[in-house]
Each structure stands twice: as C-alpha cells, then as structure tokens.
Amino acid sequence: MTSAKQSLPRLLSFFQRPSLSMQLMAVGLVITVVFILIAILTPAFQAWGWLQDPTASLINPIHEPPGSSHWFGTSNQGYDVFSRTLFGSQAALKVVLLATTLSLIIGVPLGLVSGYLGGRLDRILLFLMDTIYTLPGLLLSVTLAFVVGRGILNAAIALSISYIPQYYRVVRNHTASVKTELFIEAAQAMGASPSRVLSRYLFLNVIQSVPVLFTLNAADAILILGGLGFLGLGLPEETPEWGHDLRQALDALPTGIWWTALFPGLAMTLLVVGLSLLGEGLSELINPRWRSSR
Questions:
Q1: Mean pLDDT of 25-37
Q2: Is residue 224 within 8 Å of 159, Cβ to Cβ?
C-alpha cells in the first residue's frame, strides 16, 4: 500500500513538468484513441452510406488509383481500399483486446500465487513460463493458429499464449519482493488469510507495471496478427484485415499498384507507433528511474 500512496505525488510532479516522453505519450494516446473511435464508428459509417461494403468485390473499376470516387483506390480484387482499411482497425483491435486481456487474466493471478507461495508450485510454473517465453512469439502464434483454426477468438487465443509468461514473470518477481515488506508481515501476524493478503495488500503494489505491459503487448500483437494474416492464418479471408490485404497487395506491387499496400501498411504502422509511445510514456510515469534527461 505504501508504494501505491507514493504514486500520487509522483503523478502530479510528472504532469507539472512535462518531459519529451510525456509529450510523446500524449501523441500515442491521441493516435490510439483515433483508431478506437474509427473501430467503433465504422459500422455506423457504413449504415449511413458513407462507406462501401468491405467484402463486396466491385466488377468495375479494378485497381483504380486513389481519387474522388475511391479515396484510397481499389484493389486488384475489386475491393474498396478505404473501406477495408477502416474495417481492418476494428478486426485488429478486437483480436488484440481479447488477446491481451486473456493473457492478463491468466498471467497476473498465476504470478501472484506463485510469488507469494513459492515452493514446488513456484518452480513448476517458473519452468513452464520460461519455456514458453523462450519461443518466438510469431512462431508460437503460427503453430497455435494451425491448431485452433481461424476466427477472432481463435486468433486471440493463439496470440495470448505468448504474452502470459510476461505478465507472470513481472508480477511474480514483484510479489516475491514485496511479500517480505513489514506491512505484509504485519498483516500475516494479525491473522490475515493468504487470499486477503494477495487481494488487499499485494495486488495493488505489484500491479503498477501491468498497464505498461498491456500497451506494449498490444502493439506487438498488432504486428503478429498482421503476420498471421500475411501467411493466410488468423482471420477468415473475407474479413477485412491489414495483414491479409498486404498479402493480396504483394502480387500487385510489380505492376505499379502501390496504393493497395500503402494504406493498410500505414494504418498498421501508425497504430503500433501510437501504442508503443503510450506504453513508453506509462513506463516513465510509473517508474521515474527510467526517466531520461531533458
């Protein structure tokens, strides 16, 4: 509880003296919020007739360059690139939110219990999580995608497995360190049960790094989901998804059709940059020792 109380003055001083990292965090927050709003409002835009059906192939024109009728042009399959790019943000954020939430829900409690109880359970979980952590995220996600199949939930499950060890390791290490503090020993001496110590005293003191992990993992999950789509895995082919659209655009690049790859790739890059800046800013806010000089 002590470190949680100390975070308020730290937060106030951080905002009174904005650093470059804080300014970049604000930029990342704006980019992320814009993409969230796009994902929420895109179905309404289509219902109002402002967007074309992203899954409807146009007979004519095919691979038309950007213009007044199609702002981002059309693909060599006849899809409206602007509509698919906007709907791609919806698919990406759905999968990423599910994946990071699943890994958080599983990894944080495991880290708390493992770090607090120790013993054989801690050694077994630590060995298991270290084994998963050593595997490349994309390779593990590709393997799991083959097993679970396509779909938003299946893609989220395939992505979440590689992030569980990160939450586990951070929370477990913090828990093992904080459980030796005097206020934890005092609570135990007063007869507090292990569940009460974990939920009331330990949780709030070890959870501070989780928002940083959440945003950085979300940025990484965007790239891995794009990789799955590029390889023909992850979401069904008819679903607007940036990685799948980039794979389809690859065949058109040698013929000078550049716009079908530019706009989905730019959208993916912007969202990854926004989430990364937000995560780095949060890490500076929560951990002032990482703060760079002005």
A1: 94
A2: yes
The whole-model pTM stands at 0.85
User: Phi and psi for 78 in degrees, rounded to 5?
Assistant: 90, 10
- Render 214-250 in DSSP notation, one character per residue: HHHHHHHHHHHHHHHHHTT-SS-TTS--HHHHHHHHH
Q: What stretches of 114-175 adopt beta strand conformation (E)?
A: none
Measured distance CA(98)–CA(91) in Å, rounded? 11
> For residue 59, is pLDDT > 90?
no
As a whole number of angstroms, the distance between CA 263 and CA 260 comes to: 7
Q: Residues 212-252: pLDDT tens digits? A: 899 999 999 999 999 999 988 888 888 899 999 999 888 88
| Tokens matching residue 139 | 């390779």
Which of the two residues, 286 and 147, has the higher pLDDT score? 147
User: Where does 53-290 sit in CATH, by number?
Assistant: 1.10.3720.10
Q: pLDDT tens across 152-200, in order?
A: 999 999 999 999 999 999 999 888 888 877 777 787 788 777 788 887 7
Residue 219 CA to residue 213 CA, distance in Å, equals 10
Q: What does the DSSP 8-state code read for residue 87?
A: H
Query: What Å distances lie between residue 7 and 2, 241, 291, CA to CA?
Result: 9, 39, 15
Contact 226, 243 (CB under 8 A): yes
CA-angle at 270, arms to 243 and 237, nearest 5°: 15
> DSSP string spanning 250-272?
HTTGGGT--HHHHHHHHHHHHHH
